[in-house]
Design goal:
Blueprint (H helix, E strand, L loop, with lengths): L10 H4 L6 H12 L7 H8 L1 H29 L4 H9 L1 H38 L9 H17 L8 H25 L12 H8 L3 H10 L5 H30 L7 H8 L4 H33 L7 H21 L3 H28 L8 H32 L1
Helix pairs in contact: 2-8, 2-11, 3-4, 3-9, 3-11, 4-9, 4-10, 4-11, 4-15, 5-6, 5-15, 6-7, 6-13, 6-14, 6-15, 7-13, 7-14, 8-11, 8-13, 9-15, 13-14, 15-16
GO molecular function, one term: symporter activity
GO cellular component, one term: plasma membrane
Keywords: Amino-acid transport, Cell membrane, Disulfide bond, Glycoprotein, Ion transport, Membrane, Sodium, Sodium transport, Symport, Transmembrane, Transmembrane helix, Transport
Length: about 400
């Protein structure tokens, strides 16, 4: 932003939020690290350790670079809403592209979280009660109850900053999950290097680092915000999540090798059905993903508000209706989509590629007018845009071909 000694700051630059640096790190870390961590061991099994580490580093750097582009574009474009940037850059098509990408990506993320609740919560209840055929061991009922009594009240909060404490608890639960996974792999694992199918590796990795719909809302609520301060929040969050992702993927893979499934907890449940420690881990992960859903829902609701009612002020009635409809539709999706791999792969290949690669670079090229197209920054953004298109088209093509091959 403009240096503090210069006058005439833009209105959006002076209306600061009240979220501290630490709370913003918790919220952003929670937005980054959701159920994506459960698919990374599967990605490593498909690529081998060396190629996986290379891909993880590359995707993390690309994702962080796109955050830099997004923040700089918000500064130059004078908007802190993704859809407004899209509108300023490309009019209605840009606004629709941003809104649809955010909605697809975050509904996919919410679906993957609730999918875990649906399939893991019944196992926890069965372990405690010994019941098998009761209504309260039905995953469909349980995911509806969790959504109604835990997720909905948290999602109805007006400001994202209030979720900093629940985000901190969510991250602590995931740290506990990581510790137990690492301990299990040390006992059971041996290094195995094998490179085979890579169809789902890049989409799963791309999905695991998507937090871009939440960047601008968090930037808006950051206390005494500046481009540099928000970039610092992103740097700390990305570094922490990169380390946790790498360790979780490595230890999960070393434990099961090629037998690891698309969802790591489900893989553990096949081998350690009566292990008390892993039962506690399952509870911790359930807590983590449940508390992440409200953080992910905020950007979708903001997107829909700006798409349908851009000129209207805040309305509690509209706020509640949009929240309820989003949760209801996501629950319906969770009940009918059979595998989490389809959610990770397809959403990661389409909407996530748009949000990480294509839209931030396109907005930057269009809105940052003070730099010429021959500048290093614009050339870098153009290369980034081309890479994003290649990643999206290539990944979707591979996934579709894999589906066709699997059906025969």
């Amino acid at each position: 932003f403009l240096p503090e000694h210069k006058p005439c700051k833009k209105k959006y630059d002076t209306e600061y939020g009240n979220a501290s640096f630490g709370m913003s790190v918790f919220n952003l870390g929670n937005a980054i690290m959701g159920s994506g961590i459960l698919g990374l061991s599967y990605a490593m099994a498909n690529t081998g350790i060396i190629l996986f580490i290379f891909l993880l580093v590359a995707v993390a750097i690309f994702s962080l670079y796109s955050v830099h582009l997004l923040l700089k574009t918000a500064n130059e474009g004078g908007a802190l809403v993704y859809e407004q940037l899209g509108y300023k850059a490309f009019g209605i098509p840009g606004k629709l592209a941003a809104s649809c990408s955010i909605t697809m990506q975050n509904i996919g993320a919410m679906s993957s979280y609730l999918y875990i609740v649906k399939y893991e919560f019944p196992l926890v209840i069965q372990a405690f009660t010994g019941a098998n055929d009761e209504w309260y061991t039905n995953g469909n009922y349980l995911v509806l109850l969790v959504s109604l009594f835990i997720i909905l009240p948290l999602s109805l909060l007006r400001n994202l900053g209030y979720l900093g404490y629940t985000s901190g608890l969510s991250l602590l639960c995931m740290v506990f999950f990581l510790i137990v996974v690492s301990e299990s792999s040390i006992v059971l694992g041996a290094v195995l290097y094998q490179i085979f199918l890579t169809v789902y590796a890049v989409p799963i990795l791309t999905f695991a680092f998507v937090c871009h719909p939440a960047i601008l809302p968090m930037y808006e609520e950051l206390k005494d915000r500046s481009h540099r301060k928000m970039q610092g929040v992103a740097n700390v969050s990305f570094l922490a999540m990169f380390i946790m992702y790498l360790l979780a993927a490595l230890f999960g893979y070393l434990t099961f090798h090629s037998q690891v499934g698309p969802e790591l907890l489900h893989t553990y449940s096949r081998f350690y059905k009566s292990d008390v420690l892993l039962l506690i881990v399952r509870l911790a992960v359930l807590t983590a993903v449940t508390l992440t859903v409200p953080v992910v829902l905020f950007p979708i609701r903001t997107s829909i508000n700006h798409l349908l009612c851009p000129a209207k002020g805040f309305s509690w009635i509209r706020h509640c209706i949009i929240t309820f409809v989003l949760l209801a539709s996501t629950n319906a999706l969770v009940i009918f989509v059979p595998t989490i791999r389809d959610i990770f792969g397809f959403i990661g290949a389409s909407a996530a590629a748009m949000l990480i690669f294509i839209l931030p670079s396109a907005f930057y090229i269009k809105l940052v007018e003070k730099e010429s197209m021959k500048s290093v920054q614009k050339i870098g953004a153009t290369i980034f845009l081309i890479c994003g298109i290649i990643v999206m088209v290539g990944s979707i093509t591979l996934i579709v071909l894999d589906w066709i091959h699997s059906s025969h």
